[in-house]
Amino acid sequence: MAARRARASLKRDINTRVITPQEALRRALSDTDSAAGSLRVTEFLTSIPGVGASKRDRVLEQLAISPVKRLGGLGARQRTALAAYLDGRRAEPAQQPARSRLMVLAGPTAVGKGTVAAQIREQYPEVALSVSTTTRAPRPGEIEGVHYFFVDDAEFDRLIADGELLEWATVHNAHRYGTPRGPVEAALAEGRTVLLEIDIQGAHQIRAAEPSAALVFLLPPSWDELVDRLVGRGTEDEEERRRRLRTAVVELKDQDSFDFRVINDDVARAAKEVVELAQASARGEA
Ligand code: 5GP
Predict the structure, then answer these.
(1) Is 178 touching ligand 1 by the criterion CB < 6 Å?
(2) CA 96 to chain centroid
(3) 118 CB under 6 A from ligand 1?
(4) What is the pLDDT of residues 178-234, one digit of tens each?
(5) Atom of ligand 1 at shortest distance to CA of 203?
């Protein structure tokens, strides 16, 4: 029963791209008793986005793999053939080298970017965390100039018109958020590492404006965990929950254009990994 649940959860992770099929195959081969190891190759294939029953059957025939096989039970030649097929379909996002002190932390809604950024602010004062400008109202406890610069629509329009924002976006169809250009440029000029915690649209704009920037995609430990975080508070109605889940699926598809992927399994650990990646990128070693 528990094993079946673990396999179902793994299939959701593959289907929503929380993990790559290549990663699932590696897990299967390193531990044949694991959820991945005991997953039927047929179910593995159809959990991959874009693979349906007829493609599955063609692939199995081509690779000379019997449909009753489990991933952990594949022979050496079958493993190699399956791995090559997966790479041909969609190469795994490379942990690409970057050479910049500008780093972007983005990821799907509710993955915990804000919490990781807050941890970095507290534990790693050497990293300059950009303070965004927003048109939304402050929440209790939020401090002007620390968490955000809070402005009205007219002022936000002016910032855009005067080119004072490095990027900006309307988030959740509601409020506008943007990165003030001046402080980022000043911190970079001082030789500091600068981290932007922004949404995915903003990350793409930074990529376009500053191609050497290092883009980090924060991932949940599993799809189920993301669902818990998204709908866990139970304050949204069914329609809103579905909208959020659909958004998360779309956002997870975006990760291939990022340089690094960090799993938010533990806030302190994830924050440390982001800072180390930022430092390595700045040295041109990542
Ligand atoms: P919140 O209102 O909960 O503080 O933030 C909502 C979302 O806005 C988060 O996903 C956060 O990453 C994003 N965000 C915050 N600042 C910026 C910004 O300067 N630019 C962009 N593009 N997104 C931002």
Answers:
(1) yes
(2) 15
(3) no
(4) 999 999 999 988 889 999 999 999 999 999 988 889 999 999 999 999 998 888 766
(5) 22
Q: Is 112's C-beta closer than 6 angstroms to any atom of ligand 1?
A: no
Tokens representing 53 are 């029953």
Centre of ligand 1 to C-alpha 134, Å, is 8
The dihedral over CA atoms of 251, 256, 258, 263, expressed in degrees to the nearest 10, equals 70
pTM equals 0.77
State the residue for tokens 């799809």. Answer: 223
Name the one residue in this structure whose structure tokens are 């000029």: 189
Measured from the CA of 201, which atom of ligand 1 is nearest? Answer: 22
CB-CB neighbours of 93 under 10 Å: 15
Q: Which two tokens stand for residue 190?
A: 């001082």
Kindly give the residue spans of alpha helices, DSSP state H, lying in the chain: 2-15, 21-30, 41-46, 53-62, 76-89, 113-123, 153-161, 181-189, 200-209, 223-231, 238-253, 267-282
Tell me the chain's radius of gyration from C-alpha atoms: 21
At a CB cut-off of 8 Å and minimum separation 6, what does 194 contact? 101, 102, 103, 127, 128, 129, 130, 184, 187, 188
